[in-house]
Amino acid sequence: MLAGFPAMDAIARARAAWQAAVAPAIGLAAALGALTAGSGALAVMAMALVGAAAGYCFAVSLRFSIAGLMVALSLLISQGLFLTPADAIPALLFATAGGIAQSAFSLAIWAWEGTCRWRKVHMGLAAPARPVDEAVWDWRGGVADLRSNLTLASTSFRHALRFGAALAAGVAVYRLLDMHQHGFWVPLTILFVLRPEEDETFHRLVLRAVGTAVGLVIATVLAEVLIGDEVAVALLLAVATAFAYGLLTVQYALFTTAITVYAVLLADTLGEGALHAAGQRAYATAIGILIAGAAFLVWSNPASGKEAAEERSLASPDPAR
């Protein structure tokens, strides 16, 4: 699932390349999570380092940042499942294989679209399409952006440090509170709401709270109505997943609603009561929101909103990064 998010805005060929490139990193993060899950100190340190690296990806582009977030999310989930060191190799292989499968699917879509276009042109139903020359990525530009932002005056660099520290705090808190079952929902909230800009972060905090509340109500009602109907629940899980993918770049509150419905229904399907899962989701989300908000209150950006926007405009908008 994680490898499906990078380069969602790209054409199928470029999307397949991004997914194939990110897949090994997602696998390595999953393995690292298995190796560090048994120690609270190691889990916090690993999350701080990987989280900071993921946050620094915002210095390059939104597409690159999403790839970084999915790598951090892989570590977060692996740690949250409390895998053992013996699970490291299987986690690496399965997570990487899942990403490669996503890439193969994108390539199949690209081939299918090309075949359909060729048939329409051959039958005279469509004009020949102009070749799309979208660079998959721009290594030189990306490296230049990373180097130029390596200073505390950079919003992106400050975000990287803030992001890593906040995620590490989220991991530390759920372990100190002994939230073993769904504790990873705390840093999960932080990962999705904390952004380089203060205004955007607090806006997403509100959307996260509203979307979670609505999703909890919907999921709980559906779980109670569909008790024992495994086929209907399976279909709803598929629909919720589809909406989560489709709504991520449309409206964050709606995405949160969809992913909350998925999480609660999945927990209920695995044997946990829907009401208990909903309560855990609400509790973890509230803690994550507090940590994300506190991160900016403790260490805000030095520039005003206008200056920060001007700084971000210096970064290349090239989606290949």
Defining traits:
single chain; 321 residues; mainly alpha; 12 helices; 74% helix; globular; disordered C terminus
Structural class: mainly alpha
How do the SSEs run, as a string of H and E?
HHHHHHHHHHHH
* Main sheet attributes: strand count, strand direction, barrel closure: none
Distance between the termini: 22 Å
Question: Mean pLDDT, rounded to whole units?
Answer: 86
User: What is the strand content?
Assistant: under 5%
Spans of at least 5 consecutive residues whose pLDDT stays below 50 are 305-319
Q: What percent of the residues sit in helical stretches (DSSP H or I)? A: over 70%
> How many beta-strand elements?
0
Radius of gyration: 20 Å
Task: Describe the global form.
Answer: globular
Per DSSP, the total helix count is: 12
Structural notes for this entry:
This protein is mainly alpha-helical and 321 residues long. Helices cover 74% and strands 0% of the residues. The protein is built from twelve helices and no strands. It has helices at residues 12-36, 40-56, 62-80, 88-122, 139-148, 155-176, 185-193, 198-225, 230-247, 252-269, 274-298, 305-314. Helix 3 runs antiparallel to helix 7 and helix 9 packs antiparallel against helix 10. The two termini are 22 Å apart.
Secondary-structure blueprint of this entry?
Elements: H1 12-36, H2 40-56, H3 62-80, H4 88-122, H5 139-148, H6 155-176, H7 185-193, H8 198-225, H9 230-247, H10 252-269, H11 274-298, H12 305-314
Helix pairs in contact: 1-2, 1-3, 1-4, 2-3, 2-6, 3-7, 6-7, 6-11, 7-11, 8-10, 8-11, 9-10, 10-11
